[in-house]
Amino acid sequence: MVSSNGPETVSLTVYRALDRGEQPINKNWPQGYALITETRTVAIPAGESLLRFEGVAEGMFPESAIVTGLPKGVREKNRDARLLSPSGLVDSYLKRQVSLTRTDRATGKVRQQAAVITAGPNGGVILQTADGYEALRCTGLPERMSYGQLPQDLSAKPTLSVITHSDQPVTAKLTLTYMASGFDWQANYIAHAKPLDAGSVGKGKVDVFAWLTIANGGNQSFVNANSMAIAGEPNRERRAEQARPTGSGLSLRCWPAQRTHQVPFRPAFNPDQDFGEDNRGGVMYDSAVAVSAIDEENIIVSGSHLRAVKMAQPKAVIVAEQENLGDLKLYRIPEPVTINAKGQKQVAMIVKPDAVFDRVYSANVDNFYEDYGVSIPMSIQLRSDNKTEKGLGLPMPSGQLLLFEDSQFGPLLAGESVLADRAVGDEIDLGIGSSSDVRYSLTTIARTKARQKLKVVITNARNEPVNVEIEIPYELKGSHKHIPKIDGMPTWKATVPANGEANLHYELKLEN
Predict the structure, then answer these.
(1) What's the rounded Cα separation, in Å, for the pair 207 and 352?
(2) Is 70 exceeded by the pLDDT of residue 81?
(3) 339: exposed, middle or buried (C-beta count within 10 Å: 0-12, 13-18, 19+)?
(4) What pLDDT is attached to residue 135?
């Protein structure tokens, strides 16, 4: 048997989870997958050999594994999925004898006795000794179990084993390529909106920054890995759920040895309990805690004292390089990085300062049967074209977006949105919340069996003019040249002056 403890070099190409949609990455077990390529140098003896590749990814698809560089190829492949762990040992020794060592607290005397594991490892371990049945570590005495030998079917690491043959001893440089589940990646956008351009209506610039986040849900780290991420949806057939390697600690539960009235009472957690107020009814501050936000302007927020701060822009030390892969997009991290077990790695992905966006206030009057007659906040949209002249002009993978705007108290969150996949030249439309300053109201002026006349009043309480759009998802009666159709939807556009209002009259055709 020949064992390879780990790879010399490794490349990791991560594909997004297909059905995740707008949901964040599953931290416990990411639902994407990866293509992994390793190189290993192995001394192969003459004759038939069992070659073990230790430390492969936990979610490995063994049927996808390809080994190149062997003198006469691979005769047989096996994946060792049972890992060496406390629970794995208990499971392997179920109905078998172990040695139990206990220390008396009073005398310090150590006593050993034979025991048979009758149940475990989930929910506890039940032992049968000469004294009867008992649960492990529930006697109050220090105790441990010893096992006669290491079970052959347990591995310290996830392992792929292959059987090969060589006519003579040889030192071979092997390449192992395989697919594995338990990986994912996503783009996370941070946008910093600057003040609107003077002399224009609704036009401004936004600094667009995106993180590339790669998640590894397995227990294996990838040290100095050449890492890439693939954007797009390659065709991949569904397969049966892959069994993950077993291996974890023991979760032992014991019934209290005291009488019921001696067991300490621990009240259940009350989510409505208020932990954040002092006896004065105000928010409780710990003056000993200082939180620092650092950038070139040296910003500090300490205790209950708050000073105006400037937006701390992310600094792009490493930026992923975008390449074409057929109809897909490949993002290559330009230098090796370590992606730790159960961890995430972030590097800069997109850095586009001063992208041009238009701020538009919009509403959809989809209330044919209801006449609200009340003032309703309009939605805020940031719009641009993914073109070079707009300061963008590059593929933009889907991801969550946070928009920040400066204030006298520093950068504040102004809205959240979801950016869908956008190719070069596509329109970008981000809904970032609603406005309390720009509002609309809808009233019915007249109604008959054949038609309905309505009026929309838009008020603008801001100190600058704003652009507005009203979508009417119904069939209009007569000619409304001032309400053109955009993507098949009658849409009225107007500019509402500062601290002013605008009126829209239209007529709907009713079904008899």
Answers:
(1) 6
(2) no
(3) buried
(4) 80
Residue 178's alpha-carbon distances to 33, 57, 344, in angstroms, are: 11, 9, 21
161 located within any domain: no
pLDDT tens-place string over residues 20-31 = 888 889 888 899
Using one digit for the tens of pLDDT, what is the confidence trace for 409-452? 888 999 999 999 999 999 999 999 999 999 999 988 888 888 88
* DSSP reduced 3-state for 234: coil
**What is the model's pTM?**
0.74
Indicate the residue type of 80: D
Whether 457 is in a domain gets the answer yes
Look at residue 267 in the predicted model and tell me its pLDDT: 58
Pick the last residue of a domain from 146, 177, 196: 146
Which residue, of 97, 113, 146, is where some domain finishes?
A: 146
* Backbone dihedral angles phi then psi of residue 426, each to the nearest 5 degrees: -70, 155
223, amino acid identity: V
Task: Tell me how far apart the alpha carbons of residues 380 and 358 are, in angstroms, rounded to a whole number.
Answer: 10
Which tokens sit at 504?
Answer: 């829209």
**Cα–Cα distance, 483 to 488 (Å, whole number):** 12
Q: Which residues of 55-64 are buried (b: 16+ CB within 10 A; e: fewer)?
A: bbbbbbebee
DSSP 282: S
Write out the DSSP string of 309-320. ----PPP-SSBP
Cβ burial, residue 399 (10 Å; 0-12/13-18/19+): buried
Q: Are strands 143-146 and 97-103 parallel, antiparallel or unpaired?
A: antiparallel
Compare 293 and 105 and report the one with higher pLDDT.
105
Element (H, E) at 192: strand 170-193
The answer to the question of residue 255 being in a domain is: no
DSSP classification of residue 386:
S
pLDDT band at 381 (very low <50, low <70, confident <90, very high): very high
The domain total for the chain is: 2
Helix, strand, coil % in the chain, rounded to nearest 5: 5, 50, 45
Within 10 Å of residue 396's Cβ, how many Cβ atoms?
A: 25
**285 domain-assigned:** no
Strand partners, 492: 470
Instruction: CATH number of the domain at 134, please.
Output: 2.30.30
Reduced to 3 states (helix: H, G, I; strand: E, B; else coil), residue 243 is coil
pLDDT at 301: 38
Residue (of 159, 79, 80, 85) closest to 122 by Cα position: 85
Domain assignment of residue 413, given as a range: 353-509
Hey, how many other C-beta atoms are within 10 angstroms of the C-beta on 186?
24
Assess contact for 356 and 203: CB atoms under 8 A.
yes
pLDDT reported for residue 112: 84
Residue 307 has pLDDT above 70, yes or no: no
Q: What percent of the chain has a predicted confidence (pLDDT) above 70?
A: 79
pLDDT at 284: 36
